[in-house]
Design brief:
Shape: flat
Number of helices: 4
GO molecular function, one term: L-tyrosine-2-oxoglutarate transaminase activity
Radius of gyration: 24 Å
Protein name: Aminotransferase class I/classII domain-containing protein
InterPro entries: PyrdxlP-dep_Trfase (IPR015424), PyrdxlP-dep_Trfase_major (IPR015421)
Number of strands: 4
Strand content: 5-15%
Largest sheet: 2 strands, antiparallel
Distance between the termini: 43 Å
Organism: Brassica oleracea
Structural class: mainly alpha
Number of domains: 2
Order of helices and strands: HHEEHEHE
Length: 145
Amino acid sequence: KLFDLCSAENKKTLLPLGHGDPAVYPCFRTSIHVENSVVDVIRSGKGNSYGPAAGILPARHYAHFEGRSIFSGLEFRKFDLLPEKEWEIDLQGIEAMSDENTVAMVAETARKLGIMVIADEVYRETIYGDNPFVPMGKFSLIAPV
């Protein structure tokens, strides 16, 4: 549609940037300075792990859930973590923010409220001390997962 709006008399070359690979055009080549910097970091071995964590942030969430909710016209609500209780989820707060319009939740409280659990288990291999990982699927008998 965009190309249909262009004037036929305009003799400028159009670069179709929508196909995804900028390497087709030499003007988009990464500068040698940037390439050398990346190589230096790789060779140093200092970039072979995650950077230091600043801790768990209250009201953390996976950004895709919020964006997808907004795109779908849904209200996205965030729950709090309680630093004074070793960053446990504020279950009373979750229950208080849930109402008749709540259709899905990322928490176990769903059983009590009778709504669906959305579980992102990407960190299933992460171990927190002596606490074993328990997948949300184990709770599928008491709440839809």
